[in-house]
């Protein structure tokens, strides 16, 4: 029996040495150390041994088991390490290879114009004010000196939701709401960027949805010269330091007097070209002194306070600055169009 156990030990160690994978090693474990293995069969014959031989044979059997188990454990660790090394070798990444370029986005030209104008006016002490796009008729028209019977309403064909609720046709309601919150106490100094909506047929120069930026200053002793100086600085910063502006009389219900503002053509320098239609000037925005009625309806004493307001279409500014000939390009999400405005660091 002793010789048989030694033979089984030698056979098991040779089989372990030849094992090439974990599956074969596990089969050896079951074969030699399992309940139906040859070692167990040998031990079943211990009943024929004398009382003195049994302890010696049991100790030998345990020793053989321990030796086989230790060799299996050592072999298993070696096979697992080899498997890991093989996996690492097969999955090796060459870190010297160039990576795949990542397609990065960039600011939409309208966003760039809005941010540029916001930065300019914030630097002049203005704050950015916002308001709802679904607006009440009162703030969109009546608080801006356009009662329900006013003919100027026809120029802003509107998307009405109910008789008193509509999609705002201008960002001027933000001015009315802001003045109302001040409870008749100045100063007020804001710009109001945002989307507006009008019932227009979309073409190269018109859209039913577009963006505006309006500005408002209300305080004591505000004069027309303050408006002109502000707009002159705006034109120079946005279109170039050598730009000039001119004011032409106009009419807006919420300002009195009202003026259209032109900037000297940044392409021809005022000599005349296709952009300025040979006039040397390009119309960029409307403005004027805040109408006393608007001040009074918002709670301000028009004898104590005065102010100026201005408004511009963001798309028009972007079209002029970047030479874009169709307003619909801004809303078609054509990547080829947007790539033209990639910011270069």
CATH superfamily of the largest domain: Bira Bifunctional Protein, Domain 2
Shape: rod-shaped
Largest sheet: 7 strands, mixed
Structural class, please? alpha+beta
Gap between N and C termini? 86 Å
Helix content range: 25-40%
SSE order = HHHHHEEHEHEEHEEEHEHH
Q: How many structural domains are formed by the residues?
A: 2
Taken as a percent bin, the fraction of beta residues is 15-25%
Mean pLDDT: 86
CATH topology of the largest domain, which one?
A: BirA Bifunctional Protein, domain 2
The radius of gyration over CA amounts to 43 Å
Q: Please give the CATH class of the largest domain.
A: Alpha Beta
- Number of DSSP E strands: 9
Unreliable residue runs: none
What's the architecture of the largest domain in CATH terms? 2-Layer Sandwich
User: How many helical elements?
Assistant: 11
GO molecular function, one term: tRNA binding
Family: Belongs to the class-II aminoacyl-tRNA synthetase family. Phe-tRNA synthetase alpha subunit type 1 subfamily.
Domain Aminoacyl-transfer RNA synthetases class-II family profile: 111-340
Cofactor: Mg(2+)
């Amino acid at each position: 029996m002793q010789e048989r156990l030694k033979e089984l030990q030698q056979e098991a160690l040779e089989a372990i040495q030849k094992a090439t994978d974990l599956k074969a090693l596990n089969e050896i474990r079951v074969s030699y150390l399992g309940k139906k293995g040859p070692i167990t069969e040998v031990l079943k014959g211990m009943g024929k041994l004398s009382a003195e031989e049994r302890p010696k044979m049991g100790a030998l059997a345990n020793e053989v088991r321990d030796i086989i188990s230790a060799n299996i454990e050592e072999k298993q660790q070696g096979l697992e390490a080899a498997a890991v090394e093989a996996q690492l070798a097969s999955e090796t990444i060459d870190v010297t290879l160039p990576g795949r370029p990542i397609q990065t986005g960039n600011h939409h030209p309208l966003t760039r114009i809005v941010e540029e104008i916001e930065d300019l006016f914030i630097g002049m002490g203005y704050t950015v004010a916002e308001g709802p796009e679904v607006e009440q008729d009162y703030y969109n028209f009546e608080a801006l000196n356009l009662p329900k019977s006013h003919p100027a309403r026809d120029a802003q064909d509107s998307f009405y939701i109910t008789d008193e609720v509509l999609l705002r046709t201008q960002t001027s309601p933000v001015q009315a709401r802001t003045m109302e919150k001040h409870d008749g106490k100045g100063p007020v100094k804001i710009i109001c960027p945002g989307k507006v909506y009008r019932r227009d047929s979309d073409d190269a120069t018109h859209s039913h949805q577009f963006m505006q930026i309006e500005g408002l200053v209300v305080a004591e002793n505000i004069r027309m010269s303050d408006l002109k100086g502000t707009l002159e600085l705006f034109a120079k910063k946005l279109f170039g330091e050598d730009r000039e502006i001119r004011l032409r009389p106009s009419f807006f219900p919420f300002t009195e007097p009202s003026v259209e503002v032109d900037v000297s053509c940044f392409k021809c320098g005022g000599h005349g070209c296709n952009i300025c239609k040979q006039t040397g000037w390009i119309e960029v925005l409307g403005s004027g002194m805040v109408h006393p009625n608007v001040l009074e309806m918002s709670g301000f004493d028009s004898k104590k306070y005065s102010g100026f307001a201005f408004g511009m279409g963001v798309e028009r500014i972007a079209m002029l600055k970047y030479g874009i000939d169709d307003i619909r390009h801004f809303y078609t999400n054509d990547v080829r169009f947007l790539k033209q405005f990639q910011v270069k660091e």
